[in-house]
UniProtKB/TrEMBL annotation:
PANTHER family: GALACTINOL--SUCROSE GALACTOSYLTRANSFERASE 2-RELATED (PTHR31268:SF32), PTHR31268. Pfam families: Raffinose_syn. The keyword GTP-binding does not apply. It catalyses: alpha-D-galactosyl-(1->3)-1D-myo-inositol + sucrose = raffinose + myo-inositol; Hydrolysis of terminal, non-reducing alpha-D-galactose residues in alpha-D-galactosides, including galactose oligosaccharides, galactomannans and galactolipids. Keywords: Carbohydrate metabolism, Hydrolase. It comes from Westerdykella ornata. This is Glycoside hydrolase. One of its GO terms (molecular function) is galactinol-sucrose galactosyltransferase activity. SUPFAM superfamilies: (Trans)glycosidases. Gene3D superfamilies: Aldolase class I (3.20.20.70).
Length: 798
């Protein structure tokens, strides 16, 4: 199959060969390719013609070369406490590394900068750095380790095929730890201690034959460290457990799985209830059924009307009378009454109140004990008034009780990084953990976990609040914002999220890749990324600026009339962490639907460069598709490959993407049956089938809830039963479909009722795909009067 997103007359050929022999030890071998266009042409070196570097083959041995950390990191100082630990990840070695850090003194935190050592025998490195206080971002390099910012995670691809991962652990004993370098390639441990006694900076190191296992090993052991530390807070743990046990899972499913609308980019900062109603009317006129509404920044009552955000303070719980003269409760009540499809209404607020904290002259400052805090120099520098430790629990209880009474059932809590912007160690000790804890408790108590944690990718928050599995998963903003007016930001946004997920996939959260606009020039690009992210989808369209066709590719309607998205079961993440943003390769984001080896492997593929890129995609690049036969389908073209296996030389797909190009490829497992056992005169017929889910949806495989296929003993017929999340065009690959008669060889049912023949057809692009219009069939048969939120379809092949 050749998959393209634009016309091209170029002919493509590829060569496949075998390398015989295997080195006795793991090693890395360089190679290049020579080519010529015809026999009369001279041979040319590809690396010279196309300015590419040599290729590399890494031969791996099954056993790890050493159990000594010193084999992987040279020059380990004697003052480090290094202990080999048991690992929760098979095939990995794990070490804890403790480094001393001095105590805080007065208004100055304690700091240390200690060398870890020099990673040995590696070719490439990857790191997740603190882009600035609230956000993480990826960095890559070759040769010497040189990150431009503080890192929390660093990994190294070694020449023997192993991977070394080093994780800096924070949020324990008031110590913040990151990784840096000394200019000579050594990894350096940077630590800040806010406690009044000497502390310990903690690292975890792991080695494995694959990067995913090494990263999992360091994070799982870090979880052990954090949980052991958290166990000393028995009261908090008990309250969280009680709240966790009281959360109803179906509420979280609705929150995660419906299309949401956010007011931020679409309606701007001068927010009013009139603008919200105009936006919702526009969505309704275009038959766009959102299930969640996020009322973003600038609904609150604030002081300093015309000043910048960072100088404005929060006055009172009630909404601003300028934009919401009838009050928040009246606005939310009318939203729910007029737009019945909206099940959830969330409001935005900053963790410490607003960007400028608490207004000294406001009701909140009068009713709760406050304290002035100093912030670091920079974007948020200067003094700020906040509610003190003694009263922040009462503040959150009262505030969320007010929101709950107003009909609000979810929150987006932003600017959480302000906890890391505090300068004085006393403020950091008293406020950092307490604000996290009171927020966690109250969002569970009043909103049952329906919360978005935003600008909170700071080490103390990630390790203290997001790593422990002691509460339901919440949504976590996974990268910096969507910036509609900055063209260069859009490919980087996708690249950044895909790489951040290497770490955040292991947190007790669901990564949220942020809102986007469907009518934007990058709307399709962002939509494809959100669909493969495994997280929520919410749009921020300006009223009247909607791409309805695009929204239809992301969503579907259930028989009850609910709108759902098709969210894969695993978090979308990059398949090649060591490829940098500037490398001329396609970004591949993998995710999965269903159970391992029986589900559907999905690759979202994006051109993040400013040049046309062409690649061969093999089946073994689809995680989970290493064994068995699969057919691969392109979303944009509808083309389907023949069944193949990962070790087949014919399993390559040529993909060519222009600038801003994208594609979603899905690998569907194929099952093979023999028909005709009950009809000896006809003989046996071999037939292969694959369940394709809903066609026309970017991740239509995620519409499959349950699926079974089997030969019926009594009749010898093949029965294929599927439960789908939504109505739409259901597709099944049938290997011998062109030889069959729709009238004679098939029977299809929806909710147990026969489907009219005019609802069944053969796909225009691929003659091996049977299509069933379940929406039309549902209406024509009168099956299901809205009592089910799933669609039951059965196909019988004679």
């Amino acid at each position: 199959m050749t998959v393209r997103t634009y016309e091209s007359d170029m002919q493509h050929q590829w060569y496949v060969g075998e390398l015989h022999g295997l080195p006795t030890h793991g090693r890395r071998v360089s190679f290049t390719v020579t080519f010529r266009a015809s026999q009369d042409d001279a041979w040319k070196w590809s690396n010279e013609q196309f300015s590419t570097s040599d290729g590399h083959i890494i031969y791996q041995t099954p056993d790890l070369p050493s159990e000594n950390l010193g084999h992987y990191v040279d020059g380990l100082p004697t003052y480090l406490d290094i202990q080999k630990q048991s690992s929760d990840t098979p095939g990995t070695l794990v070490w804890s590394v403790d480094s001393p850090v001095q105590a805080a003194s007065g208004t100055t935190s304690g700091h240390s900068r200690n060398k870890l050592g020099l990673p040995t025998d590696f070719s490439r490195w990857f790191a997740l750095v603190r882009l600035w206080s609230p956000w993480l971002a990826p960095r890559q390099g070759k040769g010497e380790f040189r990150v431009d910012k503080e890192a929390i995670l660093a990994t190294f691809e070694r020449n023997d095929g192993t991977h070394l991962a080093i994780l800096a652990v924070s949020g324990v004993d008031d110590v913040l730890t990151t990784l840096h370098h000394d200019g000579s390639g050594n990894v350096v441990i940077d630590s800040r201690n806010d406690a009044e006694q000497d502390g310990v900076a903690r690292l975890v190191a792991a080695v494995a034959n694959d990067l995913e296992s090494a990263v999992a090993a360091v994070i799982y052991y870090a979880r052990r460290i954090v949980l052991k530390y958290e166990a000393s807070s028995g009261e908090l743990a008990a309250e969280l457990k009680a709240l966790h046990d009281g959360v109803k899972p179906e509420w979280l499913e609705n929150w995660f799985d419906g299309l949401a609308y956010c007011t931020w980019n679409g309606l701007g900062q001068d927010l009013t209830e009139r603008k919200i109603f105009d936006a919702l009317d526009s969505l309704k006129r275009n038959d766009i059924n959102i299930t969640s509404l996020i009322i973003d920044d600038n609904w609150q009552s604030l002081n300093n009307g015309g000043d910048q955000q960072f100088s404005k303070g929060w006055m009172e719980f009630e909404a601003t009378k300028t934009g919401f003269p009838r009050g928040l409760q009246a606005t939310v009540r009318d939203i729910r009454a007029k737009y019945r499809n909206i099940k959830h209404v969330a409001v935005w607020h900053a963790l410490l109140g607003y960007w400028g904290g608490i207004a000294p002259e406001g009701k909140i400052a009068q009713e709760y004990k406050t304290t002035w805090v100093k912030r670091k120099n920079g974007v948020s520098g200067g003094k700020m008034l906040v509610v003190a430790q003694e009263d922040n629990a009462r503040l959150y209880n009262d505030f969320y009780q007010f929101l709950n009474s107003a009909g609000v059932d979810s929150v987006k809590t932003d600017a959480q990084f302000f906890l890391d912007e505090l300068y004085d160690p006393k403020d950091r000790r008293s406020l950092t953990r307490t604000y996290q804890d009171v927020w966690s408790i109250n969002q569970l108590r009043y909103f049952s976990g329906k919360a978005i944690s935003c600008m909170s990718q700071t080490p103390q928050i990630m390790f203290h609040s997001q790593l422990p599995p002691n509460k339901p998963r919440i949504l976590l903003r996974n990268s910096d914002d969507f910036f509609p007016d900055v063209p260069a930001s859009h490919p980087w946004h996708i690249f950044c999220n895909a790489h951040n997920a290497i770490f955040t996939q292991h947190l007790n959260i669901l990564p949220d890749w942020d809102m986007f606009q469907t009518g934007h020039s990058y709307g399709l690009y962002h939509a494809a990324a959100r669909c493969v992210s495994g997280g929520p989808i919410y749009i921020t369209d300006k009223p009247g600026h909607h791409d309805v066709g695009l929204i239809r590719q992301m969503t579907g309607n259930t028989p009850r009339g609910d709108s759902v998205i098709f969210r894969p079961h695993t978090v979308g993440k990059t398949t090649a962490v060591y490829n940098s943003y500037d490398d001329p390769v396609l970004l591949k984001v993998s995710t999965y639907v269903g159970m391992a080896r029986t589900g559907v492997s999905v690759l979202g593929i994006f051109n993040c460069t400013q040049n046309v890129l062409s690649e061969l995609i093999s089946l073994n690049q689809f995680p989970g598709a290493e064994e068995g036969a699969y057919v691969v389908r392109s979303h944009t073209t509808g083309q389907l490959t023949n069944p193949s296996t990962a070790d087949s030389q014919a399993s390559f797909i040529h993909l060519e993407l222009p600038v801003q190009g994208w594609e979603i490829l899905s690998a569907f497992p194929v099952r093979t049956f023999e028909l005709g056992r009950k009809h000896p005169g006809k003989g046996l017929t071999t037939i292969s089938v694959a369940n394709l889910g809903l066609l026309g949806k970017m991740t239509g495989a995620a519409a499959i809830v349950n699926y079974s296929s089997y030969i019926e003993r009594s009749s010898g017929r093949l029965r294929i039963w599927t439960s789908l999340k939504a109505l739409g065009t259901y597709g099944i690959y049938i290997s011998d479909l062109p030889k069959r008669s729709l009238e004679d060889d098939f029977m299809a049912l929806i909710f147990g009722r026969p489907i009219p023949l005019d609802c069944i057809s053969i796909n225009d692009i691929c003659a091996e795909i049977l299509e069933i219009d379940t929406e039309r069939a549902w209406k024509e048969t009168g099956a299901n009067a809205g009592w089910s939120n799933e669609v039951a379809v059965e196909v019988v092949i004679r």
